């Protein structure tokens, strides 16, 4: 099942609706990375609220998305990890090191806004077109 | 004598015949114990007192319990069923465990009773050695089983109480408190075992979700000791919270714990630690964008 990717301002939002196969995940990764460039996105949000299981491949793909998007100039945040999923992940040692996380979509958007603000303050942000 | 004694030792070839004669011998034995009830009971109570067992109980209590144990004992010998005795042993344990009676005392008194009764059998049958042997053959397995039943009943009761208490401790052990909008504190007190650590983490994660918490302060002032297992649990809790988007600040690491952790080489570099709970809350407020000021600093401007 293909994951819909929405564009919201400078951000891309991928909302996973059901359990994904490895192929679906790889497809999501490629689509996101490609679109970061096409839409000149500054942030990517992957919403995993609907997932009640996350295996090592899924976690690795999410981490890859974050690192690849960063290379393409966008900050990634994973939102909506369920408490049970978080606990299972930690027990398996899958801790998404170096990847930002937030409670839900709203928090994720807020986080990305703050990051953008910080970059502007530090003078490392892009010139704002708006 | 020696040959006779040897003859008595190997198990007789016909178990059916044996059980019949055993039943007859046990009947005789029970009759003897009933007859000498008062005297044997007193002797037993005396020996309990002399051996300084059951010091938590008064002499009258010991005598009263001794009477009912004696009667139950004889009944178990007579009927060969142990249910009544088991129930009585459980009931007795329930009453005496809260008074601080120890396992060795309970086992001790039952063994004393066995000895007292065996002595009375020696006295009664000392002229007929063959009969004595057969009586003891019938008596000893039954008596040992009784001693076993009582001891097991006592230990089981103890274990039941311990389990009950563990449960109770677990239930009251982990409150997750909200002190400000989006700020939770989790004070941990006592020993952290794997099961409790798991329960603690689950509770915290659920609370983060429902309270939409952004910062969590885990205070471990009340944790006396920490080993690498507990430290790893703590790290896991911190990481799982981060996956839900919450920052964790750990406070109240005692000097001993700090030394232990560094000595055993646990890597806590991923964890934000602050000296005490107050500092932790202040740091959390800073992260959340709060600033707490005394009123007089605000009022002049207003």
Number of domains of chain A: 1
CATH domain class name of chain A: Alpha Beta
Q: Please tally the helical runs of chain B, counting DSSP H or I stretches of 4 or more residues.
A: 12
What's the story with the biggest beta sheet of chain A?
Answer: 5 strands, mixed
What integer value in Å does the Rg of chain B equal?
A: 33 Å
Class inferred from helices and paired strands of chain A:
alpha/beta
Please explain how this structure is put together.
With 130 residues, chain A is an alpha/beta fold. Chain A has a single domain (5-122), classed as STAS domain (Transcription Regulator spoIIAA), CATH 3.30.750.24. In chain A, 46% of the residues lie in helices and 17% in strands. Chain A has four helices and five strands. A five-stranded mixed β-sheet of chain A has the order 1-2-3-4-5, sandwiched between helices. The model of chain A has no long low-confidence stretch (mean pLDDT 89). Chain B has 302 residues and is an alpha/beta fold. Helices cover 67% and strands 9% of the residues of chain B. Chain B has twelve helices and five strands. Chain B has a five-stranded mixed β-sheet with strand order 1-2-3-4-5, sandwiched between helices. In chain B, helix 9 links the parallel strand 3 and strand 4. In chain B, helix 2 packs antiparallel against helix 4, helix 2 (15-35) packs across helix 7 (129-171) and helix 8 (194-211) packs parallel to helix 9. The longest helix of chain B has 43 residues, at 129-171. The radius of gyration of chain B is 33 Å and the shape is rod-shaped. The chains are: A alpha/beta (130), B alpha/beta (302). The A-B interface holds A 78-79, 81, 83-87, 89-91, 95-96, 101-103, 107-108, 111 and B 198, 201-202, 205-206, 208-209, 212, 214, 236-237, 239-246.
């Amino acid at each position: 099942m293909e994951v819909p990717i929405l564009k919201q301002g400078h951000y891309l939002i991928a909302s996973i609706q059901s359990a994904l196969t490895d192929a679906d995940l790889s497809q999501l990764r490629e689509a996101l990375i490609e679109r970061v460039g096409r839409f000149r996105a500054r942030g990517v949000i992957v919403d995993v609220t609907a997932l009640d299981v996350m295996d090592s491949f899924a976690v690795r793909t999410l981490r890859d998305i974050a690192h690849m998007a960063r290379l393409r100039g966008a900050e990634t945040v994973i939102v909506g990890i369920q408490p049970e999923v978080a606990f299972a992940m930690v027990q398996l040692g899958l801790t998404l090191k170096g990847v930002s996380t937030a409670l839900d979509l709203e928090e994720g958007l807020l986080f990305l806004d703050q990051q953008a603000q910080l970059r502007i303050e530090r003078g490392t942000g892009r010139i704002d077109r708006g | 004598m020696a040959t006779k004694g040897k003859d008595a030792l190997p198990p007789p070839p016909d178990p059916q015949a044996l059980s019949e004669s055993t039943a007859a011998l046990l009947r005789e034995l029970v009759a003897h114990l009933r007859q000498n009830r008062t005297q044997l009971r007193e002797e037993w109570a005396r020996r309990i007192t002399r051996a300084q067992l059951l010091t938590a109980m008064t002499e009258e209590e010991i005598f009263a319990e001794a009477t009912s144990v004696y009667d139950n004992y004889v009944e178990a010998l007579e009927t060969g069923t142990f249910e009544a005795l088991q129930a009585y042993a459980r009931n007795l344990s329930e009453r005496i465990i809260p008074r601080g009676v120890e396992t060795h005392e309970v086992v001790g008194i039952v063994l004393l009773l066995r000895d007292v009764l065996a002595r009375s059998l020696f006295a009664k049958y000392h002229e007929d050695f063959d009969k004595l042997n057969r009586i003891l053959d019938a008596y000893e397995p039954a008596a040992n089983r009784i001693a076993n039943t009582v001891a097991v009943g006592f230990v089981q009761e103890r274990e039941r109480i311990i389990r009950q208490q563990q449960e109770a401790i677990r239930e009251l052990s982990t409150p997750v408190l909200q002190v400000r909008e989006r700020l939770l504190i989790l004070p941990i007190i006592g020993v952290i075992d794997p099961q409790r650590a798991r329960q603690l983490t689950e509770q915290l994660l659920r609370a983060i979700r429902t309270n939409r918490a952004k910062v969590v302060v885990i205070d471990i002032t009340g944790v006396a000791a920490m080993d690498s297992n507990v430290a790893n649990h703590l790290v896991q809790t911190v990481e799982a919270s981060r996956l839900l988007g919450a920052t964790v600040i750990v406070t109240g690491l005692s000097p001993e714990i700090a030394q232990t952790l560094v000595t055993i080489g646990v890597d806590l570099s991923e964890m934000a630690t602050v000296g005490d709970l107050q500092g932790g809350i202040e740091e959390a407020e800073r992260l959340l964008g709060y600033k707490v000021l005394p009123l007089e600093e605000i009022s002049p401007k207003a």
